[in-house]
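quick one, 303 residues, struct below
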Amino acid sequence: MSRSKPSLPLAHKERGFSLSKTVAKPSPAKLSVECPHCGFKQMEYAAAKSTLCRQCGRYFCPFAPRPGLKLQTKDQAAATLEPSGLRKLEGLWNKQRTRLVGCFECMRKHEVSDAATSTNCPGCSAHIDLRDYKIATSFSRSIRTRGDVHLMAKGDLSSTSVVCRSALLEGKLRGNLQCETSATINLAGKIPGRLVANYVCVERKADVQCYRCVRVANIDIKGRMSGEIIATGAVNVHKTGVLDGNVTAKSITIDKGGVFSGQLVIGQADLTQAELLPDQKPPVASTLESNIPGTAAHPLPAT
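---
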């Protein structure tokens, strides 16, 4: 005979049935938090470390302790406002600045970024160098740039031609120099080449001898300089300056204590001394008499 399995009691069946069921976990609690930036209130989980404001879109820590309000004095309030003003000034200063450069070939001018190292002319497509050169050793290549050239005390610039925006000369210069704006001379030595610039400043400790003509618009001489100067503007010899050479300029100023030795022509720089004299046109009659030998003119006999 087959034996039937003993049936479990009803209580055990109910207990077994209840054990087979999955127990639902309680949902994590949510709390109301307030955005410290805009004041918007929203529900977030209690275990949340950071959240995003649903109104202003900024991140914040929902349960971080909020600092209490503190009254500030006028000095403290001004101190807190200063960094923002500095940031604004820094932002204005860090904005991309531009400058105007001219082409070496067609002389066309256009704007470029101040951080650019080179550009091409929009008119003739010629390459324009915008780099700055700092020369501390021997350098023999030609330089043609719209940047600045700094010839240091131990530098030896033997290039035949140097064209730049501005130059600071503290070392040996053996070739020609042409500056778009200014040239500052602070060396003791000789310059065998031509020097052309809009403005030249000979510093107080300088003692320079220029073999060839110096063509400038204006020049300030605070040290010692010897050479010929042709200026379309003014020549200023300061109280510590010594100038030895011929000068052709529109005007000259010599401070008390300054020394000038040489020939001086005041007028237009592109004219010679003979052309600066006033024109004297002789009368027409005297011109005819000088061309015809004899004294007085006699009437011709009638035929």
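The chain has a mean pLDDT of 78.
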